[in-house]
Amino acid sequence: MCDYSLEMFQSRPARRGEEYISNKFPSGTVGFVARGDQSVAICMACDMELQLSGISSFIQEHADVSDRELTTFTQVDGPFHRDAVRFSNGRVITLQALGPGVVARVCDTQIERPLTLPTSETAEKEEALV
User: Fold this and answer.
1) Strand residue runs (E) in the chain
2) In the chain, fewer beta carbons within 10 Å around the N or the C end?
3) Is 102:53 a contact under the CB 8 Å cutoff?
């Protein structure tokens, strides 16, 4: 998806295996571009897995993540800046908050995650969050 505020720019879909960089467009919206071509917005599909690197120290501290993280592209509710990433710890950060200069590599294949069955303790914690 591409934020509505990027509709005035040329765009194309992301391709598996390619690498992009977050960029601040003239409209002020942060989105992904291919290196060397800041005029074309790269639109990610929801649930696309991205390997991010170059995450700012502020975001690392705020989201309790490292400089390099596996994320899932998603969208959040709201009228502006809905494009976001979900970290493996569950934290969601909009691309606007992520800022420019973060490298995103689209994963070639869906990464298989081990199946973990919830214990009664984790089920109670999840119920408390709802």
Assistant:
1) 10-13, 19-24, 30-34, 37-43, 49-53, 68-75, 83-87, 92-94, 103-106
2) C
3) yes
- Give the pLDDT confidence score for residue 117 in this predicted structure: 45
Tokens of residue 93, six digits? 């950060």
Of the pLDDT bands very low, low, confident and very high (cuts 50, 70, 90), residue 31 is very high
Provide the CA 1 distance to its chain's centre, in angstroms. Answer: 11
Tell me the C-alpha distance between 43 and 27, whole Å. Answer: 16
What percent of the chain lies above the pLDDT cut of 70? Answer: 78
Structural tokens at position 95 = 């691309």
Prediction pTM value: 0.77
| Distance from C-alpha of 75 to C-alpha of 72, rounded to nearest angstrom | 10
Lowest mean pLDDT among 24-38, 95-109, 110-124: 110-124
Is residue 20 within 8 Å of 106, Cβ to Cβ? Answer: yes
Do 12 and 43 touch, CB atoms closer than 8 A?
yes
CA distance 26 to 97: 16
Cα separations (Å) of 113 from 2, 6, 79?
A: 27, 33, 33
Token pair of 90 as six digits: 């569950």
Element (H, E) at 123: helix 120-129
